[in-house]
Each structure stands twice: as structure tokens, then as C-alpha cells.
Amino acid sequence: MLPRNTIHRILWRHDLILEDDQHPPALQRFARKQPNELWQMDFKGPKRWPQPVGPLSVLDDHSRYLIALAANGSTRGEPVRRQLEETFQRCGVPDGMLMDHGIPWREQQAPSGYSRLSLWLMRQGIRLHWSGIRHPQTQGKIERFHGSLQRAWRRRGIPAPPHLQTWLDEYRWEHNYVRPHEALDMKTPASVWTPSAKRYDQHPPRWEYPTGAWVLKVDCNGTVEIKKRKWRIGQALAGEYVHVVPAGGRWMIFYCATLVRELDPQIQCSTIVEHWIPGSTSVF
């Protein structure tokens, strides 16, 4: 049996679909209920931007408040970490963050896929989520913001590199305090957003799992032993403690608050969990 999408493409190629039915319906719109439950984070594409990498944007999913807009000019982990440290000190720490599979959030050469930056975020107690591969709709709010940002610099012009951050700071203020948003009943993001009560800890203590939780230490080879079998968790987590949660005949492995692995003893499979949580699709 052919998949539904394949049938749709065949009919579309042969002009057998009415114009009103040629595009799939929009996904259900989704937004977190409170500020700082989820921040979306991504780099703007470099098109027409005078740096190799476009600005780093961090957007609150509930209020559309622009937490950060930075002309880093690089996707290297250390500059991004410094920017996020400043952001956490100024705005507090969110419950969760959503990003794509690119650098610096993911390390393609590492067997576990997790970069040093993503592990640092997890140790702050932030629950990390990754968008679907080649599915930008998952980060629809920040994608839409990037479209507005690109239209703004096309109309207004982009300043010389020494003044890029000043331009972005002014645009961020305008976005947060001046421009009303239709999804917020024409309120401004700043009138809806409040700083997070969770404060940033430069040297967080070891994560405390719930009392009585099934906790295992990842050995130097990046594995844990469950029922006399070694399971691959990831070299990046060597020496760290993880929380094992049984679920429907499988074991879900959490590092701090983030789900990092799914173990299936029936098929002897250890899978990296790297997709956005089902049912939480975010459009605009």
C-alpha cells in the first residue's frame, strides 16, 4: 500500500487535485501555558548578514519575548555558552529549551550525539528537546521571527560590523516593548513575559534524582549494566549518574531532567532520543 503522502504527490503531478486542496492543512498551533516553560533557540541563516553565521536568537515560547539576539558570528560552543550564561544571569533559567540537530547543540562525531554545551545545559536542570530532522515547523515561532528580522534588515539596511550588536539590541527592544502580537491579543511580549524564578548556578551541585529512584552510574566505557547486560548510553556521560524509568517493557534513561536514551530489551536496542516530544508540535 502506498503512503498517503505519495498518493497525494502523484495526484498533484497529474493536476487531479483541486487548488484549495493542494496544500496540507496547517498543524495545530501550540504554545506553552506559562513564560519560561520553554525557550526556542536557533541561529538565523547568514543570507545578507555580514558574518559567516546569522544572529543567535532565543525566544520564549509562551510570550514570544525575545530573550536574546546576539551577533556571535560563530556556532562554536564556548561563545554560545558565554552568551547563554549572560542570558541566564539576566533572565533566569527556563524549564526547557528546544533546538535543532546542528552545531553546537549536537556533536555529530560523538557516539551519543550530545555536545559539551548540551550537557552543560542539562546540568542546569533544563529539559532539552530537539526538533524533527528537516522539520522547521517544530520551531515555528522562532522561524517566523527570523522572517520578520530578515525583512527588517532588508528595509532598513544592515550597519557596519562594529555596530551589528547595537542594531540587534535596538530591534530586540522594539520587538519586545513596541510591537503588539496578534497571538497575544495585541499585547506586547514584554507585557506578558516575566523573568524565571529559577536562578543560574555557575557551579551546580550533582543532580538529585527522586528518593527511591533507580539510579545507575555510567562506566568509563559509556555503558550501564541492567539485568546482567551492558547497555550503551554514550561516552559523553561516562562517570555521570542516570535515572532508569521502566515504561511499557522498555527502559527510559534520563540524565538530570532530560530523556537521553530508550532501551528495548525485547529487541536488544539502545536508541538515542532526539526528537521533539510527540503531541507538542509548535507552529506559530
Description:
The chain has 284 residues and is an alpha+beta fold. It folds into 2 domains: 39-192, 2-Layer Sandwich (Nucleotidyltransferase, domain 5), CATH 3.30.420; 214-272, no CATH class. The chain has 6 helices and 12 strands. It has helices at residues 4-13, 77-91, 116-123, 140-156, 164-177, 189-192, and strands spanning 39-43, 56-60, 66-70, 96-99, 127-130, 214-217, 223-226, 229-232, 241-247, 250-255, 258-264, 269-272. The strands form 3 sheets. The chain has a 5-stranded mixed beta sheet, sandwiched between helices. A 5-stranded antiparallel beta sheet has the order 6-9-10-11-12, with no helix packed on it. Strand 11 and strand 12 form a beta hairpin. It starts with a helix and ends in a 12-residue tail after the last strand.
SSE map:
Elements: H1 4-13, E1 39-43, E2 56-60, E3 66-70, H2 77-91, E4 96-99, H3 116-123, E5 127-130, H4 140-156, H5 164-177, H6 189-192, E6 214-217, E7 223-226, E8 229-232, E9 241-247, E10 250-255, E11 258-264, E12 269-272
Parallel strand pairs: 1-4, 4-5
Antiparallel strand pairs: 1-2, 2-3, 6-9, 7-8, 9-10, 10-11, 11-12
Q: Kindly report the CATH topology of the largest domain.
A: Nucleotidyltransferase, domain 5
State the shape: globular
Q: What is the CATH first-level class name of the largest domain?
A: Alpha Beta
CATH architecture of the largest domain: 2-Layer Sandwich
Structural category = alpha+beta
Number of domains: 2
Radius of gyration: 21 Å
Strand sequence of the main sheet, in spatial order?
3-2-1-4-5
- Main pleated sheet: 5 strands, mixed
Count the DSSP helices.
Answer: 6
The multimeric state of the shown protein is: single chain
Distance between the termini: 34 Å
Q: In the CATH hierarchy, what is the superfamily of the largest domain?
A: Ribonuclease H-like superfamily/Ribonuclease H
What proportion of the residues is helical, as a percent range? 10-25%
Number-wise, the strands total 12
Mean pLDDT: 83
Strand content: 15-25%
Poorly predicted parts: 22-28, 276-284
Order of helices and strands: HEEEHEHEHHHEEEEEEE
